[in-house]
Structure formats: structure tokens, C-alpha cells
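Deliverable D4.2, example record:
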Amino acid sequence: MADTVPTDQRAQPDRAVDSTDAPAPILVIACGALSHEIQQLKAMNGWSHIKIQCLDAGLHNRPRQIPGELREQIQRYRPQYDNIFVAYADCGTGGAIDAVLEEEGIERLAGAHCYSFYAGEAQFNQMADECAGTFYLTDFLAQHFERLVIRGLKLDLYPELHQDYFGNYERVVYLSQRRDELILAAARDAAERLGLEFQHRHCGYGDLEKGLRSQVIAYA
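Output generated by the structure prediction step:
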């Protein structure tokens, strides 16, 4: 699979294989913004029984739609998989994701959003206390800043909205998963474009790996 799954296309998970010698298949229904990282963790750890179904990362800008999309995918694939895990945090849904998952009996990643589970809850809270006006970037958001932020918020058409969206921000903090100079440069460019101070903190996979590993152990 390519490094990043096109987020406007829904990848089809591999067909579940029933084998008495293999761990039970686990379907991970994930935000498209986590696709590359989950694929990397799967390869690094030999988690061949993990299958991945991605939703459009553009839902970051439409969080009210996420719970319904998750319910649709869960109900679609439940006949094929006994074990389903959701690779989303709350993601600005105000508990609506949790309401769906409680009804469906499915767990998700811990935390309020991907920034907290990449950085770790304690470190993220510390950064938030240092500066409430922080705009966060991950590898994915740095690489797709133009599409998800500039065009996603229609700043390309209405640049006068810049102050409305970012007037109260003071800095950009890039929480990197990979050590990649090209992505780092893209993150710096994003901060410059927003007219904000730039900071870089390398986090790796953080609690994303911990959350996935807990599922692998549970269903080994």
C-alpha cells in the first residue's frame, strides 16, 4: 500500500481469514490521517492480522459527521469481524463517538484528539498550559496543510477569514511521528503562512501504538 491512503477514497479492508493457527483478525476503523502510522506499526510489529478501514481525513473539518460514518462502517463490517477497534479519539464530537461505540460495544483510542495521544496526555496538557493559543500539526496535517486547512477552511477563496480563524493563536507546534526533513520544512512553511511562531517536538507514535498493542494482546 502507498504511504498515504487517499482520504477521499475508502480503502477496502483485506478479507478476514479464518485460521486456527493465526490470531483472530482485528478490523481497525481509522481516521485517514492515521493511515500511514497504523500501516507502519502493523509492518514493524508483524501484526498481519490487523485489517484497516479508513474514513476520510477531511472529516476533521466536519466532526459532527464522524459518529454516523463510524456507525455505518461498524454495521457494515460486523458480520465479517468479531473484533473491531476504532482508531479515533473524541475528535471534537463532544462525546458523540463514545455514544455510538457504547451502543455497539466497541473500544476506541484514549484521549480527546490525535495530538494528545501522539504527545501523551501529560505532555499535551503541559503544552496547553504553556500556551492555550497553540495550533498543532502532525505529519499528516503538515503534508496536507493546503488541502485540509487552507482549502478546507476556504481561506484560498476568502483570505479575510484568516483573522477570524487564527487571530487568537500564538504558535504552531509540530508533533512529528517521523524524522523527515521534508515534512519538517512543510510544517515550518505552514507556521510561516499563518504568521505564527514555530516549535517542533518529536513524539513518534505515542499512545497510538499503545492503544493498538492493547488490542493485539487482548485478541491474541
